[in-house]
Sequence to fold (372 residues):
Amino acid sequence: MERPARRAGPAFPIVSTPPPIPQDISALQKHICAACGAQAEWNAAKQKLVCPFCGTESAYVPPEGTGPIAELDLEEALRNLGEAERGWKAATRSVQCRSCKAVMVYEPTRVGQNCEFCGSPALVDYADVQSPVTPSSLLPFRISEVQVRETVRHWFASKWLAPNAFKKKALVDTLHGLYIPYWTFDARVHCPWVAEAGHYYYEKQGNNTVRRVRWTRASGVVDHFFDDTLIPGTRGIDRGLLAQIEPFPTQELVAYDTAYLSGHVVELYQVPLPQASELGGERMYAYLRELCIAQIPGDTYQNLQMSPHWSGRTFKHVLVPVYVMTYMYGRTPYQLVVNASTGRMGGTYPVSWVKVALIIVAILIVLMMVNR
Fold:
């Protein structure tokens, strides 16, 4: 069967009327505890602002007039984006890790912290970039740190191939909650396709049965709407680990407000919008190809040709919550990531080669006994 090579992501002509860029969303620069005057922090378990010093709880009321979260026309936004739509709407300090190159945004009062991704203390002030594009929306933390720590302990205990000494380490002490950047992309596609559909039939040749293929022309049309195709804007977390904890429930996005960020570190996006757009186009195209293949009748196919017409391509810049734990075992770094909206977890861990060797020996013994 001939399978044509996958083409690069398509160029999407913008044909829809660009939606207006949303008005600046007002947000309090600081969230002061009404009882003691300290900085209140967002509490995932209570879904409130809670003072870490006196425990006073404050119900958070989103600002009025924010309206629905808008999808922005890609090219129009890049051309017309002004300084009013840039920045974090709060005093911040940006630092970059010299080890893993992640860029993090802290409250200016935080000093002496290590990198939230790899644990390195080698942080330097980062001012080599213009003000970032303000996120339009975010997902608040839904899973508490207490819940995550217990889940991580059970996860470690379940890894029976891990060294016994590894399971006894108190690694959950290195767990950190932070917001990482994502881009979401929408697009509508109308895609006529043509291909050769193959139908199997069988012929007898002497004592053998030979499979043949009867080829017929096939054609069809795929109409599809891509809603919130997710592309990570982070370089601090391995893409493979992010794939394990996706998707994020973008239907639960709320308008960006610094109240949700209070007490958390935010990573500055390092995958710029043009690059993220290309990655989003490639992901959409790959899925579109699968949709076309699913329509081809018969048992196999060849010479698939697609003619997609794209419209209404829009985007959002959003922040999503994760818990990250990076640790060293021996001289090797490992990382574990938890989706703080859904609780899905992905990670890497050390493997005991002694246990692996014992398993191989046991399998060989069984095979020897079976073959006797």
Remarks:
- The first helix runs from residue 74 to 80.
- Confidence is low (pLDDT under 50) at residues 1-29, 84-89, 108-112, 124-131.
- Residues 70-370 form one domain.
- The chain has two domains: 28-62, 70-370.
